[in-house]
Amino acid sequence: MSSSGDFGNPLRKFKLVFLGEQSVGKTSLITRFMYDTFDNTYQATIGIDFLSKTMYLEDRTVESIL
């Protein structure tokens, strides 16, 4: 099995960094993208969070690292 991803297509990796002032919605935006949910309560992110999501778009495998 090759390390290029599923279906014989190359795995594309994108690393995204979200920077900004506090309480502007960075975590809410990421949570919406990752889990398709929204939480109205505010809980500050302490430190750094890393998440990744693999998606299959048309004929490509894409991994987003947030």
TrEMBL record:
Q: Does the keyword Transmembrane helix apply?
A: no
- Name recorded for this polypeptide: Rab6
Gene3D superfamilies (alphabetical): P-loop containing nucleotide triphosphate hydrolases
| PANTHER family per record | RAS-RELATED PROTEIN RAB (PTHR47977)
Q: What does the UniProt keyword field contain?
A: GTP-binding, Nucleotide-binding
Q: Does the keyword Nucleotide-binding apply?
A: yes
Query: Which top-rank group of organisms is this from?
Result: Eukaryota
Provide a Gene Ontology MF annotation, just one.
Answer: GTPase activity
In terms of InterPro entries, this protein maps to: P-loop_NTPase, Rab, Small_GTPase
Return the SUPFAM superfamilies for the record. Answer: P-loop containing nucleoside triphosphate hydrolases
